[in-house]
# Entry
Amino acid sequence: MSKALPKRSENYSEWYNEIVKRADLAENSAVRGCMVIKPYGFAIWEKMQRALDDMFKATGHQNAYFPLFVPKSFLEKEEEHAEGFAKECAVVTHYRLKSDGEGGLMVDPNAKLEEELIIRPTSETVIWNAYKGWIQSWRDLPILVNQWANVVRWEMRTRIFLRTAEFLWQEGHTAHATEQEAIEETETMLGVYADFAENWMALPVVQGIKSPAERFAGAVETYCIEALMQDGKALQSGTSHFLGQNFAKSFDVKFVNKENQLEYAWATSWGVSTRLMGALIMAHSDDNGLVLPPKLAPIQVVIVPIYKSPEDLAKISESVEPIVSELKALGISVKYDDSDNQRSGWKFAEYELRGVPVRLGLGMRDLENGTVEVARRDTLTKESRPLDGIASYISGLLDEIQASIYQRALKFREENTFNVDTWDEFKEQIEKGGFIMAHWDGTAETEEKIKEETKATIRCIPLNAIKEAGRCVYTGKESQGRVVFARAY
Amino acid sequence: MSKALPKRSENYSEWYNEIVKRADLAENSAVRGCMVIKPYGFAIWEKMQRALDDMFKATGHQNAYFPLFVPKSFLEKEEEHAEGFAKECAVVTHYRLKSDGEGGLMVDPNAKLEEELIIRPTSETVIWNAYKGWIQSWRDLPILVNQWANVVRWEMRTRIFLRTAEFLWQEGHTAHATEQEAIEETETMLGVYADFAENWMALPVVQGIKSPAERFAGAVETYCIEALMQDGKALQSGTSHFLGQNFAKSFDVKFVNKENQLEYAWATSWGVSTRLMGALIMAHSDDNGLVLPPKLAPIQVVIVPIYKSPEDLAKISESVEPIVSELKALGISVKYDDSDNQRSGWKFAEYELRGVPVRLGLGMRDLENGTVEVARRDTLTKESRPLDGIASYISGLLDEIQASIYQRALKFREENTFNVDTWDEFKEQIEKGGFIMAHWDGTAETEEKIKEETKATIRCIPLNAIKEAGRCVYTGKESQGRVVFARAY
# Structure
């Protein structure tokens, strides 16, 4: 804790890396691009998982598990999908090692697989191959299944949480009898993601549709939620795909509909990943370290005793005990740190770094006065409060912090969202960062040229876009509404 | 539902396969040896996970996540470990596919990995490589970490849940400052597994130590829990390993102890897997299908209306509504199946097949009499009960069923555990099945010969073994106590 964190304003990227490291969230492993998620980081991910899983179940979904391995021939079946993922596939070619005769191991050339297996980069192919056996009649539909799994995409430039070769995610895969129902499912799940982002992660998001160039490989339509990070770059935080009948056709999944005719099933898939951990860190944290919304904080309240003698500590501990019980009874996760290996100042800084939303400091003078010092992580403010009734005060305070972190992020996004109408302005603003709302002529050519010249991509066509005639910021051609441009993670 | 299940007594193996299939638990996938765990099966696994995870956390453990990939050189570092796993490793050799020029995909020869990556068969090596960075001083110890993950062991003969190439499991990996503490941890976790098996799975287990030949590759001592299936074969249901300093030495993990001296850390690892699903099915189910202990049943109570007209159904539904609410308020998972696509007889058989512990049948005559038919899955008995107070009756009944299933399995094991003192008797009994308690001279040679001649292995040396001088059942040499022999899954 001796060295200060790099400042966001000076080196945002280094600031991010240091928070990940010093808050003990994750680290790079010996395998290129693969991370180790450490216990404190994983505890946050577990809270995310639990909340999302409850929301999936509340919307009628069940969990299942499908194999890690995708036969190469499966990937070939849906052309766009194959093209989209072929270049980043980890490929299993052998199933045995043997002694190399020099004390080491080598791949056994006699154990070559007849057909190579890909580590799933996503599971549409494996799952639709299974669905073929599950779906015969409209009575078998809908199938509303999700899986929590690890996936591998062999990325060349990796960054902890944001882009890793292996990552953890959930992938929902649903099958429906009608196009309309599948589209509704796609939109429902986008709504679930937006709800989770805003109400759990305290992260305001723009809901929208991807341009064709940014669509998921194999999708008819990709919906997404996009969030703005503090450095002015966008982060795609979740996607929900309407897959039409593409995978049903590739895997020959037909059902007898109510009119007794054979028809291909309609599909959706949707996912969020450990990337959300990156979004969480980058959206809220400050130059003192991690800032966590209370709903996702593994420790919501830490209590630190301030004392000189063991006798003082004993007295403080005695007063703390009922507070701990009361907080726990309110469902609040609390840690009383009476360890004697560090001074209270060191502890304060440590819990600040780890983003614990509320810190209570309790010294002998507090005991005498019947008070306690309450420190808020989000605002870094402190106040002295009566010990009496402190638990219910804190319960309310945690709600207030949750709301306040969201409001701050929302304000930041609003202040960094710009209507831009000229190309010069666009080039200037994109260097400064933020969401740029600009007209686009709707062509892939223009999108590509803008990307080449500015590194900005169309993040989405917002669902709530106002219909507004205008001229494309790049070509001057006609446009029916603004889309969101930004540089992105 | 037309065809009856095969009977256990006629074809146990086929009976098992059919239950897995018809109760909709899992199925084979297109990838050899890999299974798809279907929603109903996965819901049982989720209940197991939740219970175990709570127990791990209650004993001070935290979850984390480590990479799927093990560099080949890591596996080489611990000799016995390498030897134990090398022959069943799925090996990633390339990281990209490319077009084969004929519309398909091929492995890109230019994307060969410098060092091959193994899909983890277990994670000791990857984790101890990470621990090297986590452990400097005795203050960093103990590290009490668990991960829920998929692992791959390329088995030649596979069987759903019991032996699959990919399976799901948890693996705990702990590091300690002293040998004593590590041994205590190993034993504590064995106790957690035994507790889970007995109190959640209703599965009586023998706790014991493996013979050196059956030890985990790289362990100093392997503890296990062994259960007896209804066909008289044993099933290893969980293992807890004391790893000594083997992995610390292989990965050079030293710490400064309290005496300020450098020392290697002490290790344990412990795991249970989706194999437990196989144990659960085989221990309790009968010729009518799955029998689930209530604590692990996704649906604990199903209510089936028996009616002729929509008006009758409406009346029944009206009476059912408060029962459903009351059951839910007691934390009981209940399903009211008022679907009109099947007759009630079909539904009865279906829920029997799926092992729902309690079925309530409600017809018009019941309404008139203020009664309800209560059917127990475990005993297949029915009784008419007053509707009044039915929820609390069922709550007690579920506890009774949980206890009763355990008692039945315990009685079965007791009746199928035999003290055997002669080799002829041994050979005869092993054909009939069961746990054979016999003296063994303690040598690997004898163990191997017994295995060759009878396919029986030493399941464990029981922790609670009575010290009893005797003569080895095979060689007649001296022995200090009986060990458990059986044929095993």
